[in-house]
Every structure is written in C-alpha cells, then in structure tokens.
Amino acid sequence: MPQEDTSVSEKLRSSFSNVKNDIHNLTNELSNINLLINSQEKDILTLKSNIQSISKDITEIKVFLQNFNKVPLEMKGSVNNLQQSSTINNEQQSSTMIPKTAQNTSQNTISGIREDIQKQFSTLTDREFSAFIAIIELEKQFGEVNYSQLANHLNLTEGTVRGAINRIISKGLPVTKERVFNGKTSLFINKAFHDVGLLNKLIQLRQNPTDQTTFSANF
Questions:
Q1: Which pLDDT tens digit goes with each residue over 1-31?
Q2: Top-tier CATH class for 123-219
Q3: Secondary structure element (H or E) that encloses residue 187, with its range
Q4: Among 191, 202, 193, 132, which Cα is nearest to 161's?
Q5: Label partner for 175 (CA 20 to 30 A): which of 26, 72, 83, 135?
Q6: What confidence tens digit (pLDDT) does each residue in 177-199 have?
Q7: Are 185 and 177 in contact (CB under 8 A)?
C-alpha cells in the first residue's frame, strides 16, 4: 500500500506539473497574441496617419497651385499677348522689340509679389520668425509637428508657442493647424516655403532687412 500511495502521489505531482506547464505555455501564447494585436494596431494607426498626410499634401498642392501659379500664368498670358503684338508690328514695321510699357508692367507685377512676401515676414517678431523656421525644420525631420515638439525645440512653454503661432496665422503667413486622430494639433507650412533657396533668402533678408538685392535678384 505505501508503494501504491507513493506512485499515486508521483502521478499527481506529474499531472500538476504538466498542468502548470500548459498554463505557462498558454500564457506565453496569449502574450504573443497581444503583442501581435498591438503591433497590428500600430500599423493601422501609422497607415491612417500616412493617408492623412497624403491628403494634406494634396490639399496643400492644390492651394499652392491656386495661390502661387496664378501670377506666373497671368504673366505668361501677358507675354504671349505682347509677342503677338510684336509679330504684327514686325510685319508692319520690321520691329522685334516689346514695348517698354509692357515690360514695366511685368516687372511691376513681380515686384509686387516680392513686396507682399517681404511685408508679411517683416511684421514677424524674432520669436515668431524662429517659430516659423522651426516648424519647417521639424516637418522635415518628423513629417508633422505639434505644440509640444515645437516648445521643446525652442525651449519655450507651450502657451508661449501657441500665442506665437496664432499671431503668425493672423498676419497671413501660410501656417495650417490640423487636429489629428490622437487628439493633438499638428502644424504645417505650405510646401512652397520648404524650398531651401527661398528659405535661405528669407533668412538673409531677416538678418539684413535693408538689403533687398539678394531676395529681389533671385526671386
């Protein structure tokens, strides 16, 4: 009988051990499943973010084409009209020169665009200009920028940054605020101002506002 009791006891221990192992294995499997689900959820969120980013880019491109390509198209039309007029004059007078008044009109149009941009940026304070440039820099690094990132980058409080951004927008600069799926507000700047050449010219103009030659000669 003692031997039988010992055998039963060993069998029970073995059974309990097997049950523990099974529970442990099931726990590991559940943990792996949870990790997989979390990973898939992150992938879905990333995909949604990418879709929103693409939609935002498309919208900005449309706005850019509407707001920035209008003048060049109008200028192109003006030049075409002048060329047609010049062709008629060539037949009648053998002249290939475009009238000086028409040239002055085109130059005045370009000058007006430059002056508008210069005026907008000249109204910014140093803090506002730094915030504008910082948004562009952070957008290039992370794709999108929120108030917290901008505040850390500039070593300012979020409240100070929010005030600066609101003032920038009120002054007509192309900063867009968009609330994303995580509840935070992202900040974007029109892609036209991401051009390194234009950005450098604006910085140079900011550093030496009395010198308009660098900006006007290259814009």
A1: 555 566 767 777 777 777 777 787 888 888 7
A2: mainly alpha
A3: strand 185-189
A4: 132
A5: 72
A6: 888 777 788 888 877 777 766 67
A7: yes
